[in-house]
Write a structure and sequence with these properties.
Radius of gyration: 23 Å
CATH class of the largest domain: Alpha Beta
CATH superfamily of the largest domain: Alpha/Beta hydrolase fold, catalytic domain
Number of strands: 16
Strand order of the largest sheet: 3-4-6-8-7-9-10-13-14-15-16
Number of domains: 2
Shape: globular
CATH architecture of the largest domain: 3-Layer(aba) Sandwich
Structural class: alpha/beta
Helix content: 25-40%
CATH topology of the largest domain: Rossmann fold
Distance between the termini: 53 Å
Strand content: 5-15%
Oligomer: single chain
Largest sheet: 11 strands, mixed
Length: 554
């Protein structure tokens, strides 16, 4: 393996957290032109130089794959541009250094997990493939490109939107390294950073007027801007701007779902992949405005000028405090996309599938045991007694007991721990079915293909089974770099070949195929066919029909 990539994937802590992360933050204010550290950067002589619409960029070559890291796709959203829609990048002279990942956006970690600067260390334990040793920064509108050739081959383009909900995450997470997928499928891979949490999703229209009408969806407008950059530049990197697939897992899947219903994104992509993150509905403008008022109260500011002057870390902490206050005051708002009538005119897939994306093929799916990766650190995991299931039934609401009873009958050999886990996973699955059903009801729409990842990893003693995020190293073809999650033996290798094949095939022509798969039947309301991905894959009809009927009843 190329040593540049090895350092980025495995040995990042000292080097990237040190010199390069500080260099990245310094460069966050303006592009690295005529890089003063050029003597320290060992750049191969074959490093390509590409002419973008804003100026020349120079990347590096990783064992035959060209990499361009930390490319700006929009202006720094700081100062007067904070909370505003993204603005174009200014042109530059000289050569932009594209050999280092850009800074992640400001991070607001999950209330149920780590919340401080030790987040990366804990992520390496809980989500072993997703850690990134790099300081976050308000100036983070960067993307990364991996391509087999800087030429005119017009390859399919696969654009990845990261997970972490709308609160944290980065396109620079090691799990998303696009080198192997670019080589495997002869495709161009792009990963994107964008504004998150209240920097990308705090609705200030009520507080500060029409100029801030789009502030509740600014982070999604960043994604639109990244796709506009792809449209305008990707041909120079060997990609086809007329064959762009957007894809994402967890929160990234929700972002894909929302762009399918975002007018500003129409025409910028041609296929969509939603992994373990269906976005069926969005937040309300009313709740978002109430949450923003709490933030302003926490900060003690009354004008937009005052808000623009508050340090980013202080704004972030006010957001955390505001969320806690909102819950105590019965306000259900969150820092995520909202139906605002400006950027997003409607819920993504309610009351029906969006008309604007009728012609876009969709692939969507989930992992059989999504919730194990969240539940495994909990003290009850592995020790829950049978009588403890009653507590979980209550916590799951009016359908809780029916779900527990259903999975007890469906999976009689499972322990109470895994019965509870299956009932909690049901919400992922139901949202996937709901989105698929809405598309299937749409007359003359492009096909939708559904999958369920069944393969169970033997990592960590096999306790995670088929957890949230397990699909990522398979479809990115990063199996060997992710053994800590995917486990040992040939099984992960087979899944990596199978899934990366299918993802690339779908990006190429809208139909997921592989020599390792049976023919993949498009989803329909009569049979609800699902491809179960395993060492021995199979097409099955409505594998979660019982759960679906329970949740559909209410």
């Amino acid at each position: 393996m190329n040593t540049n990539r090895l350092g980025r994937l495995i040995c990042a802590s000292a080097f990237i957290a040190g010199t390069l992360s500080f260099a990245g933050i310094a460069s966050a204010q303006e592009p690295l032109v005529n890089d003063p550290y050029a003597d320290e950067h060992v750049i191969p002589p074959t490093t390509p130089i590409v002419e973008t619409v804003n100026g020349q960029v120079q990347g590096l070559v990783d064992d035959g794959i060209h990499e361009f890291l930390g490319l700006r796709y929009a202006a720094p959203p700081i100062g007067e541009l904070r909370f505003m829609p993204p603005e174009p990048v200014e042109d530059w002279d000289g050569i932009y250094d594209a050999t280092t990942l850009g800074a992640p956006a400001m991070q607001m970690y999950s209330p149920s997990g780590p919340r401080t600067s030790d987040f990366t260390r804990q992520m390496q334990v809980i989500f072993p493939t997703l850690a990134e040793e790099k300081f976050d920064n308000e100036d983070a509108l960067f993307l990364n490109v991996w391509t087999p050739g800087v030429d005119d081959e017009a390859r399919p383009v696969m654009v990845w939107f990261h997970g972490g909900g709308y609160a944290y995450g980065s396109g620079g997470w090691a799990a998303y390294d696009g080198r192997n997928l670019a080589e495997h499928g002869d495709v161009v891979v792009v990963t994107v950073n964008h504004r998150l949490n209240l920097f990308g999703y705090m609705y200030l229209g009520n507080a500060f007027g029409e100029d801030y009408a789009a502030s509740g969806n600014a982070g999604n407008l960043d994604l639109v801007a990244s796709l506009e950059w792809v449209r305008d530049n990707i041909a120079q990197f060997g990609g086809d701007p007329n064959n762009v697939t957007i894809m994402g897992e967890s929160g990234g899947g929700s972002k894909v779902s929302h762009l399918l219903a975002t007018p500003a994104a129409e025409g910028l992509f041609h296929r969509a992949i939603i992994q373990s993150g269906p976005g069926v509905t969005s937040g309300s403008q009313e709740d978002a405005a109430a949450l923003a008022e709490i933030v302003l109260d926490e900060l003690g500011v009354e004008t937009i000028e005052e808000l623009q002057a508050v340090p980013a870390e202080t704004v972030l902490q006010a957001g955390r405090d505001a969320l806690a206050r909102a819950r105590s005051e019965g306000i259900s708002g969150n820092f995520g996309p909202i139906v605002d009538g400006t950027v997003l005119p409607r819920h993504p897939f309610m009351p029906a599938a969006p008309e604007q994306s009728r012609d876009i093929p969709i692939m969507i799916g989930w992992n059989k045991d999504e919730m194990t990766i969240f539940n495994a650190p909990q003290p009850w995991f592995g020790t829950l007694p049978e009588e403890g299931l009653a507590m979980f039934a209550q916590n799951l609401g009016e359908d809780g007991q029916a779900l527990i009873d259903h999975y007890r009958a469906e999976r009689p050999d499972d322990s109470p721990t895994y019965i509870a886990n299956s009932a909690m996973t049901a919400r992922f699955v139901y949202g996937t079915y709901t989105l698929a059903d809405q598309r299937a009801r749409q007359a003359d729409a492009a096909p939708l293909y559904m999958y369920q990842l069944m393969y169970e990893s033997d990592a960590n003693g096999g306790i995670l089974r088929s957890p949230h995020t397990l699909d990522i190293p398979f479809m990115f073809d990063n199996v060997e770099e992710s053994r800590v999650l995917v486990g040992s033996g040939e099984g992960p290798v087979i899944l990596g070949e199978m899934m990366s094949d299918a993802w690339v095939s779908f990006a190429r022509d809208g139909v997921p195929t592989s020599d390792l798969l049976p023919e993949w039947t498009p989803y329909n309301l009569e049979d609800r066919p699902v491809m179960q991905l395993d060492v021995e894959p199979a097409m099955v009809n409505d594998p979660e029909g019982g759960m679906r009927e329970i949740l559909s009843a209410n």
